[in-house]
Design a protein that fits this description.
By secondary structure, the chain is an alpha+beta fold. The chain is built from four helices and five strands, in the order αββαβαββα. Strands 2-1-3-4-5 form a five-stranded mixed sheet. Helix 3 links the parallel strand 3 and strand 4. The termini are far apart. The mean pLDDT is 97. Bound molecules: tetrahydrodeoxyuridine (THU). Tetrahydrodeoxyuridine (THU) binds next to helix 2. Tetrahydrodeoxyuridine (THU) binds at residues 17, 20, 22, 24, 40, 42, 49, 51-53, 83-84, 87.
Length: 128
């Protein structure tokens, strides 16, 4: 199995999903091949919950990573689960049209580009 996919599945095991019971893992690969992982971390307020994708990406950024090649997302389902809208916006901001790999609990994967999920993004280009 692709090591990035494996890393996302493993990160899912650390999820703190006491309210939804829906565990998600993500793994981000930077241009140097470094891998950063994250899981969803829920909060009793619900609204302060942070998704696995953002945890992984913010960990990467805080470690100095700046260019990203691929993002793998492993959700608690037999269906292939795409990133939520907030994560699509954040991924676009820092990764652009990155390759996304979705994986389910059966180990099935689907590869797509962020642009396909997020066709007309608002970004810094509109602020100039
Ligand atoms: N979740 C993620 O971690 N990533 C997504 O892209 C979709 C949703 C988490 C947030 C929450 O903890 C749980 O899944 C249910 O929405």
């Amino acid at each position: 199995m692709d090591p990035l996919v494996e890393a996302a599945l493993k990160a899912r095991e650390n999820a703190r999903a006491a309210y939804s019971g829906f565990r998600v893992g993500a793994a981000v690969e930077d241009a140097a091949g470094r891998v950063f992982t994250g899981c969803n971390v829920e909060n009793a307020t619900y609204g302060l919950t942070i998704c696995a994708e953002r945890v992984a990406l913010y960990k990467a950024i805080s470690e100095g990573a700046r260019e990203f090649r691929r993002v793998a997302v492993a959700a608690d389902a037999d269906t292939l689960t795409p990133p939520c809208g907030s994560c699509r916006q954040i991924l676009w901001e820092f990764c652009g049209d990155v390759e996304l790999i979705l994986v389910n609990l059966k180990g099935e994967t689907e590869s797509l580009r962020l642009r396909d999920l997020f066709p007309r993004p608002f970004d810094a280009s509109f602020l100039r």
